[in-house]
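Sorry to interrupt, but I need a hand with the structure work. Could you add the entry underneath, on a fresh line?
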Amino acid sequence: MSKFKNSNNKEVPAISTASLPDIVFMLLFFFMVSTVMRETELKISNHLPKATQIKKLEKKSLVANIYVGKPTSSFQSVYGTEPRIQLNDRFSEIEDISTFVESERESRNEVDRLMITWALKVDKDTKMGIVTDLKQELRKNSALKLNYSTLKNVEKQ
C-alpha cells in the first residue's frame, strides 16, 4: 500500500494579467462611444416651464434647438439683462434666424430637411414679445414644425 502525503505547502499560481489591457481598452472604448456630450454651451438662464400634458419627440436627431432667456451673470455686463436668443453657441438677433434655418437644413440629409422640428426652449420668465417675433421669422423661412420644450409637472398627492 502506498502512503498519501498531504502537502500543505503548495503555492497558489499567480493570476495572469495578460488580458488586463484588453479589458481596460474595451471598457474605455465602450464609455467613449456611449457617452453623449452636450452640443451647445448655454449662455442664458433656461428654467423651462412645467406642463401637465407633454409628448416626447420621436427622433431627436431631427430637432434644432433655439434657446431664449436672460444672459447668465457672466454675460450680463456685455449683453444686458433683457432676454436674448441663443443659436448654437452664440447670441443672435431675429435677423440671424434665416441664416440659422438654412444652415440647419443644409447640415441634414435631403430627405430629413422637411422633417426638422424647431424646439423653442424658452425661459419661463421670458415675455412673449420676443417669442412672437421669433415665430414670425421662422414662419417667413417655412420652418413651421414648432415644439415648445417643457418639464413634466409632477403633482404631489
Observations:
- The chain has four helices and seven strands.
- The first strand starts at residue 50 and ends at 51.
- Helices lie at 20-34, 76-79, 97-106, 128-140.
- The mean pLDDT is 89.
